[in-house]
Design a protein that fits this description.
By secondary structure, this protein is an all-alpha fold. Helix content is 59%, strand content 0%. It contains 4 helices and no strands. The radius of gyration is 15 Å and the shape is globular. It starts with 9 loop residues before the first helix and ends with a helix.
Length: 97
């Protein structure tokens, strides 16, 4: 999309940022391997998800996200993670719920 970011809404800018962050860490096939997912989470989501230090934790998360069993996380599978974390954090930003 070639629309200048200043013409986009806050939500559209957020969506572009999610896409850009995914591609910053994904390999040439536009998929995340386990190490790339760990790096993305530890670098980009450390305020919402505790840093992953244990391989078991990473293995469990990866298995839950890898819906097609190809041992890589594609963009649709990544969006599942984003949706889950956003939903879980919703109450932090809206304590009146």
């Amino acid at each position: 999309m070639e629309m200048p970011k200043e013409n986009m809404t806050d939500l559209e800018n957020g969506m572009v940022t999610i896409i850009q962050v995914f591609h910053k860490y994904s390999g040439h096939k536009c998929k995340l391997k386990k190490a790339e997912l760990k790096e993305l989470i530890n670098n980009e989501m450390s305020h919402f998800i505790m840093k992953i230090h244990e391989n078991e934790t990473l293995d469990e998360l990866f298995a839950d996200l890898d819906q097609n069993g190809d041992l890589e996380i594609d963009f649709q599978e990544f969006i599942t993670l984003i949706a889950m974390v956003t939903s879980a954090c919703h109450q932090l930003f809206n304590p009146t719920l």
